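Researcher: Please translate sequence to structure tokens.
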Amino acid sequence: MKKKILRNWGLKLISLVIAFMLWYLAVSTDDPKETQTYSNIPVVLRNAELLEQENKVYEIQGSILTRVSVRAPRSVIEQLRASDIVAEADMNMLTDINTIAITCSVPNYEVESVSSNPAVLKLSIEEKSTRWLRVLPTTTGDVAEGYVIVGTKIDQNRIEISGPKSLVETVSYAGLRVDVTGATSTQTANAEIILYDADGNIIESERLHKTVNQIRMEVEVLPAKDVPVELSYTGVPSQKYMATGRVVCDPETIKIAGSVFALANINKITIPEDELDITGATGNVEKVINIRDYLPSNTRFADANFNGRVTATVYVEPLRERTMLIPEERISIYGIPDKMISSYALPGQSYKLTISGLADVISRLDVTDVSCVVDIEEWMDDEGIKKLVPGTYTLPVRVTLPKDVTAVGDFYVRLKIEEDKEDG
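Model: Translation complete:
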């Protein structure tokens, strides 16, 4: 038997080799090698915490997706899906030019080769920075007519942000915004924090991290009303000066806020006269008055930025003089004794009357505004004269002038007193 097995062993070996080659050719022909490219394969970054430990942050330049080419038998390619491919970049392999080689694999499959395009991941690496920001509350929209925003409150007025130093330095402040369109009552909301640069432009970046993303904000809305400020004054100016009566308040009206009931019966804000004392003044008296203490009960200033101060001015001017000519027909004569008559010593003349007052007032004064009376009977009583004898007398004239106008010195006329010859 042994001899039969070993007989023609060379020929048998050749036959075995030929059979193997035929088998290999048959298999290769039925399951040939192919290359397939898969797009949008995400690259997983490994050991990213290494940069964080060095207080640095990174940003991937370009896409985090890559294209992977796989060479494998057709039977494998037909089963392979993009989700079966793993693409990784290990931070331990970071180069001096901030690139990391992308390594690809296809677990659970026998493949001949795997490659990616691009072959490296490019990073931008920067020092990490942290800073605190003030938080400024703002509103959008307009409240209902007749209402105002009297104040805002927020639960915290500072937040911390972190990120790349160059980006963190561009942030100036954090803001909150609540829409108050048509509001007639206090509005409360958890407002999103928005970052702004120094010019008020919004900064949006996933690379900036905030300690909180929302802050509770309250916007107080109340009814409002415009009311005038009423001023008065006390005291008398210096001699030869007079208050014009004009008192000006700047601003003239103040917007106040409060409940509907609190505002219902409020028509003005009254400032006591002792706040404005013009005693001895020789010119306009101006004073800044804090009217906060004079606000009606249960009200407040509608403008939270208004400091409560108004400027009050009392106008004081020097007195001026003017000489008027009073014709004799404008002078009334009363109290002539019985059986006597009077006439002017110099008939047909006008008499000079000097008046004093504010320039604007006396410049507009007309003789018809002046009342002149000679009361002979009253003059006799004052002089103790029991009986008036005929003769020429210089008699005082009682002058009545408009308010705040006075006569300067005494005003006299000369009258001739005679017996009435026509009287029986």
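Researcher: Any highlights?
Model: The first helix runs from residue 2 to 6.
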